[in-house]
Amino acid sequence: MARYAMVIDTKRCVGCADCVVACETENNVPEGYCRDWIVQDVRGEFPHLQMEIRSERCNHCENPPCVRCCPTGASHVEVGGIVLVDHDECTGCKACIASCPYDARFVHPEGYVDKCTFCIHRVKEGRDPACVEVCPTHCLHFGDLDDPDSEVSKLLKTRPYHTLLPEAGTKPKVFYLI
Amino acid sequence: MREITITSGRNMHLIDPHLSIWGWQIPVYLFIGGLVSGILFFSTLYYIRGKADELKTIVRVTPLLAPILLALGLLALFLDLEYKLHVFRFYTNIRLQSPMSWGSWTLAAIFPLSIIWAAMHIEHVLPNWKWRYHWLRTGVTFFQKNGKIVAWIVMLYSILLGMYTGILLSAFNARPLWNTSILGPLFLVSGLSTGVALNILLSKNHREKHLLNQIDVMAIGVEVFLIIHMFMGFLASTQQKIEAAKMFLGGPYTAGFWVFVFGLGLILPALAELLEVRGKITPTRVPSLFVLIGGLILRFIIVQAGQLSHWTF
């Protein structure tokens, strides 16, 4: 059983937003919405400033609050630990949106709730998600955490990293190398 | 200093710049749910204690409004759904971990129960009432004969209904203002209090009003305690919770909450009711009207402010 994760090298990311455009094209994301986005996180006092650029998306949490609070089971964990929304089961009650500390979900104009799928349709074919494939600096990595020889496992073994809001108890599976 | 900027542009409908997924529909439903819970709880309580004729408004008159109010509440919930055609999906699944699933099944039970409860009492309120079909007459007689069993079931569901509206919000870890276990009891007590207030508005019996005023003073006392307790909890907690409390302690909801909910919706009516109980002032309907409006504003403010509160501060 795979446990898919994304590892993002913040040292390489330049914030070009190619991943955002690739995702919108690949997944036909409606205008005005996005499944991933770029964040510039600046800390410190001038002139001693530090900046981290991150490509953010659904964290496909191991303890996903959106799945727990969904009243119909539309939000579910797919094989490989990918958190998905079954459009056919979704009522658009928006409980999952309220439960997500990352604000990674939105209401699709057709009524159901939508978000990043780790491009599961591509992953099933053995390909990388669109954002990973298109990244010009190769800062995005996708793979199986349960496979010790996968690129993501190796990176997490050799480089320091952090996740977003680990204190929310969601156990995110998108890791940021620092 | 820490500054977080989304440079790829993000201005998603209902999500950015802050969550605004729940508009008027949810607070209106939460208010009605609490109100109906209060109406049915006291009606069944005094029915079981054999006071149906003595306390006619509480036991028999006000519950006639319960199914109508509940239908309006359900309509508000339905209007909130983004995928209205899929509303039936609530009833093709039971999700034990989801408060909303518990809620939808509770509503599926309490709505027909409230109709049965009203049907059991309607003849006592409207003497000329005639059931058009024989089978309806037979059904109502059956429930009347087993009145106490029905009353216990309705009472159980009324408590579930009152509790779950608060639990629904408190289960969202992502919104620090909602994420407090006080919200369940607070909404339950507030619901009971608004139910009592509606009874006071409708009652013409002096003894009954006296009893209702006594109950309401106690309910408001508990509510005030829970609210103070809630803010003490926030201020003693993590920065996210402190920021959530700040919205009410100097932030945008300070005046709205402390003047309209706490002052005019709780303290003032409690004082007026206390003076009425002691016979110091002539009873009026104003305090109960204030309790009802305060209860509605409480839910509007909690639902709105909760959507503003978040983890990053």
Order of helices and strands of chain B: EHHHHHHHHHHH
Distance between the termini of chain A: 28 Å
Low-pLDDT runs of 5+ residues of chain B are none
For the largest beta-sheet of chain A, the strand count, sense and barrel status come to:
4 strands, mixed
The CATH architecture of chain B is: Up-down Bundle
The N- to C-terminal Cα distance of chain B equals 12 Å
CATH superfamily of chain B: Formate dehydrogenase/DMSO reductase domain
Q: What is the helix fraction of residues of chain B, given as a range?
A: 55-70%
What does this structure look like?
The complex is a heterodimer of chains A (about 180) and B (about 325). With about 180 residues, chain A is an alpha+beta fold. Chain A has helices spanning about 20-25, 65-70, 95-100, 120-125, 130-135, 150-160; strands at about 5-10, 35-45, 50-55, 75-80, 80-85, 105, 115, 140-145, 160, 175. In chain B, helix 1 packs antiparallel against helix 3. Chain B is globular and about 70 Å long. At the A-B interface, strand 2, helix 2, helix 3 and strand 6 of A face strand 1 and helix 4 of B.
In short:
The complex is a heterodimer of chains A (178) and B (313). By secondary structure, chain A is an alpha+beta fold.
Distinctive features:
heterodimer; A: 178 residues; alpha+beta; Alpha-Beta Plaits; 10 strands; 21% helix; 28% strand; globular; B: 313 residues; mainly alpha; Formate dehydrogenase/DMSO reductase fold; 11 helices
Topology:
The complex is a heterodimer of chains A (178) and B (313).
Chain A: E1 4-9, H1 18-27, E2 36-45, E3 48-57, H2 65-69, E4 75-78, E5 82-85, H3 95-99, E6 106-107, E7 113-114, H4 120-123, H5 130-134, E8 140-144, H6 151-158, E9 161-162, E10 174-177
Chain B: E1 2-6, H1 25-48, H2 56-61, H3 66-80, H4 99-125, H5 134-145, H6 147-170, H7 183-202, H8 206-235, H9 239-246, H10 254-277, H11 286-308
Helix pairs in contact in B: 1-3, 1-6, 1-7, 1-11, 3-4, 4-5, 4-6, 6-7, 7-8, 7-11, 8-9, 8-10, 10-11
